C-alpha cells in the first residue's frame, strides 16, 4: 500500500499544532482499540452456538492487543501517552453497546453487523493516521499503521464473508428451537 499524503500545498506540516493533531489522532485510535477489546471480550463471554465467530473474535482480540502496544510505543516516542479520558469513555461505550444487544432475540446478528461496521471504522482511522504521519514527517510510522490496516482489512473481509452463512445458521437454530441468539 503506498499512501503519499502531504498537506494540500504539498509541503510537510511541522507546526506544534500539526503535531498535536497527529498525537490526538493516535490517542483516538488507541481509545478505539480499547473499545474494540471491550466489545470483543463481552461478545466472547456470551457466544454459545457460533464457534466460528468466537474464533475470529479471539484471533482479532490478540491482534488488537498488539495494535494497542504499537500505538503505545508511537505515543511514547512522541513524548505523549494515551488519553485516559478517551480510553475510559470508549471502553464504557463498548461495554454499553455489547450490553444493548444482549436483550435482542438476534443478538448474534446485531453483534455481527456492529463488528463489520466497526472494522470499517477502524480502517478509516488507520488510513487517516497514515496521512497524518506522512503530512507531519513521521514516515517511519507508516509501516506500523499499514500493518494494522492490513489486519483490520482482513478481519473485515472475514466477517463480511461470514454474513450469509451466519444468517442461515441463525435461522436454522431459531427454527429448530435451539439457542440461536448467541
Q: Helix-strand pattern, N to C?
A: HHHHH
Largest sheet: none
Helical content (DSSP H or I, runs of 4+): over 70%
Pick out the low-confidence regions: 1-6
CATH class category label:
Mainly Alpha
How far the N terminus sits from the C terminus, by CA atoms, comes to 37 Å
What is the count of distinct domains? 1
Oligomeric state, counting identical vs distinct chains: single chain
Under the CATH scheme, the architecture is Up-down Bundle
> Which structural class should the secondary elements be placed in?
mainly alpha
Report the β-strand fraction as a percent range.
under 5%
Q: Please tally the β strands and state the result.
A: 0
Mass-distribution shape: elongated
Average per-residue pLDDT, rounded, comes to: 90
> What count of helical segments does DSSP give?
5
The CATH superfamily bears the name: Ferritin, core subunit, four-helix bundle
- CATH fold category name: Ferritin
- Gyration radius (Cα, Å) is 18 Å
Explained architecture:
- The protein has 182 residues and is an all-alpha fold.
- The chain has helices at 16-46, 51-77, 84-102, 107-135, 142-175.
- Helix 1 (16-46) runs antiparallel to helix 4.
- This is DUF892 family protein.
Identify the notable features of this structure and list them briefly:
about 180 residues; mainly alpha; Ferritin; 5 helices
Amino acid at each position: 500500500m503506498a499512501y503519499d499524503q502531504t498537506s494540500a500545498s504539498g509541503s510537510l506540516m511541522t507546526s506544534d499544532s500539526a503535531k498535536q493533531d497527529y498525537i490526538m489522532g493516535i490517542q483516538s485510535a488507541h481509545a478505539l482499540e480499547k473499545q474494540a477489546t471491550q466489545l470483543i471480550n463481552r461478545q466472547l463471554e456470551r457466544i454459545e452456538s457460533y464457534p466460528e465467530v468466537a474464533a475470529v473474535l479471539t484471533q482479532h482480540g490478540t491482534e488488537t492487543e498488539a495494535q494497542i502496544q504499537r500505538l503505545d510505543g508511537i505515543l511514547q516516542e512522541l513524548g505523549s501517552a494515551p488519553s485516559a479520558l478517551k480510553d475510559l469513555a470508549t471502553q464504557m461505550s463498548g461495554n454499553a453497546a455489547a450490553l444493548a444487544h444482549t436483550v435482542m432475540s438476534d443478538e448474534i446478528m446485531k453483534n455481527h453487523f456492529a463488528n463489520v461496521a466497526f472494522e470499517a471504522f477502524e480502517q478509516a482511522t488507520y488510513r487517516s493516521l497514515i496521512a497524518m504521519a506522512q503530512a507531519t514527517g513521521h514516515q517511519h510510522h507508516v509501516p506500523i499503521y499499514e500493518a494494522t490496516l492490513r489486519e483490520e482489512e482482513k478481519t473485515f473481509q472475514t466477517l463480511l464473508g461470514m454474513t450469509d452463512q451466519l444468517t442461515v445458521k441463525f435461522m436454522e437454530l431459531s427454527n429448530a428451537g435451539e439457542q440461536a441468539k448467541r
